[in-house]
Structures are given as structure tokens and as C-alpha cells.
Amino acid sequence: MTIATVILAILAFGFLIIVHEFGHFMAAKAAGVRVLEFWVGMGPAILHHKFGETDFKLCLLPFGGACVMDGEDSEDEAPGTLSGAPIGWRALILAAGALMNFLIGFLIVLLLVLPQKEAAIPVIESFADGFPSQGESMLMEGDRIVRIDGFRILLSSDISTGLSRGDDTTYEIVVERDGKKLTLTDVPLEPAEYDGTLRYGLNFEVTELGIAGRLQQAAYKSIDFARLVWISLGNLVTGKVGMDQMSGPVGVTDVLAQTAQSSMQSFFLLVAFISINLGVMNLLPIPALDGGRLLFVLIELVARRPVPRKYEGYIHLGGFAVLMLFMLYVTCQDILRMVG
């Protein structure tokens, strides 16, 4: 890891924060909501300049950011305030940051996919010598794998993800065979040594990619990134993954810097994953996050009246305090891993 790769990692992380906050900024401007402050980073401001009604700030710590709008947590519903904007615009403003992260993540993946002329698809071309699960009631050549234990297969790389989610070595696999979908039960599949390599023994077809195919590959890869976030959250809730295995901004920057040193393509792929990760996490219904604020908009839509802004503000303040404590914890874990 070099100084250049560390700087590149910090810039990449900062870029994703700017993209997120810029989404809020543009949606607010489109809705006629005043943006009072737009800052990148946290802590004291080291640079700032006011353009129009907005004070743009660059803060000391290169993590985090905010787009501060007039009337965020107040009862003031005057024109130009967030509270005074129509409910549809408010929902769009709150979701716009995550939507921008999804868009940027997809565009980065697309730029990496565009040079590819061909790609493997989840259609079985052949089996490795000694592969056990073949026959009418098992896997056959030409089968397109659709689901593994309910997990939807979009790309050939999803096969290993679908198989790794199970606790057993037999699976329920849905395949498309001769134009019909078949459900195969108790299909035995586990890694074994084939041709000197530890793998599942499935060889997949490779197809040429046109423009539509490349767009599809990029879309599927982006969906996979979002699904991986949900899988990770599920593993956290069920205890398969411990809190000490989570990473914060310091850990993410460290991984970005190490990845940049080994492969720039992997680096940009990781940036795309982090961008989509930020989008998913920000939409979780947690107080202080965009998803938590969207939850209050939904409550207002159903109840036909808003939760008093004062109480909503208290809830978001409490959520922010908990998030800060959590960030402090994961940052300490990141530092301990780095020095260890």
C-alpha cells in the first residue's frame, strides 16, 4: 500500500459521498427547496464558499457529508422548506441520494463490462470428469440453472453464491430444460478436486455479447451487488457474521487502497460495490438515515397527517447518536485489524 493508493482510495470514497449528497441537492433544487449547506467530510470546515443560498464546505475528516435543507426538522411549512414541499417531492428528495449511488454503481460496472466481447452464462456446457450429479432427475448438459434453494441465478458467478448459502451438500435446483422449468430435488453438489482444481465441476457456456447483452450483464452485476448487501445483513442478524467483522470508513479505505495496488479493474469494481452498498444501507428504515426519514413520510401518507416534527427530530437525533457510537466501534475495530 502506497501513499498514492491511499489518496486514491480517500478520493474514491469522498466521490461517492459527494454523489450521494448531490442527489439530494439536485432533487431539492428541482422541488424549489432551499439548500442551506452542502458539506463534504466531517468536523471543522477547512474551506468554504457560498454560492447563492448554499454554503459549500470541505471539512477536515474525509468521511461523511450532508446536504442541509431549510425546514428539515421544523414545523415551518413555508414555501422553499422541506416540510412545506409536497409529500411526493419530499420522498424523492430523501431517496435521491441512494438513487444516485445506485446509478453511479451501475455506470461504473457498465464501463467495465463494455470492453468485454463475451461472457459465461449459467447454462451447463459440460461436466468435469467424475462429476456425480448427472441424469434425468439430476443436472444435464444444456440445463440453464434458474434457482438454487430459492436463490435466483442471474450470472454464472451466482452459482457459487447460491451454493455457499446452504448448510448442506444437497440442493433444490430449478433448471430450464427444453423450454420447460424443472425442479430437481436433493441434488448433491460440493467442491471436489477436478483437473487439479478445487471446484464444483460445472463448465458453463460462453456467449458473445452485443450492446444489449453488455447492458444486461452490467444490470445483473449491479443487482448482485445489492443482493450481497442483503445477504450480509441477513448473516449479521442471524449471527453467521459477528459485529467485529464489519468495517467502517477506515477499513473500507484500507481495502480500497490495497485493491488499487493490485488491480485497477478490481478497484473500480469495488468502488461500484461500495456505491451500491451505500445506496442500500441509506434506505434502511433506521432513524437519521434517509430510509428512516422516508418511513416517516410513509406514516404521514397512511395516517394523512405528519408525526410532529419535534418528536421526529428527537427520534432522528437519538438514531444519529447510536450511529455515531456504532461508527466509533467499527472504526476502532478497523484500526485494531490494521495494526494487528
UniProtKB/TrEMBL annotation:
Q: Which UniProt keywords apply?
A: Hydrolase, Membrane, Metalloprotease, Protease, Transmembrane, Transmembrane helix, Zinc
Which regions span the lipid bilayer? 91-114, 267-288, 314-332
| Annotated Peptidase M50 domain residues | 9-325
Q: Which GO terms describe its molecular function?
A: metalloendopeptidase activity
Which SUPFAM superfamilies does the UniProt entry name for this protein?
Answer: PDZ domain-like
Instruction: Tell me yes or no: is Transcription regulation among this UniProt entry's keywords.
Output: no
Q: Name one GO biological process term.
A: proteolysis
Membrane topology designation = Multi-pass membrane protein
Q: What cofactor does this protein call for?
A: Zn(2+)
Record protein name field: Peptidase M50 domain-containing protein
**Native organism taxonomy:** Bacteria, Bacillati, Bacillota, Clostridia, Eubacteriales
For this protein, the record's Pfam families field holds: Peptidase_M50
Q: List the record's Gene Ontology CC terms alphabetically.
A: membrane
| Protein family (similarity comment) | Belongs to the peptidase M50B family.
Which InterPro entries does this chain map to? PDZ_sf, Pept_M50_Zn, Peptidase_M50
Record localization: Membrane
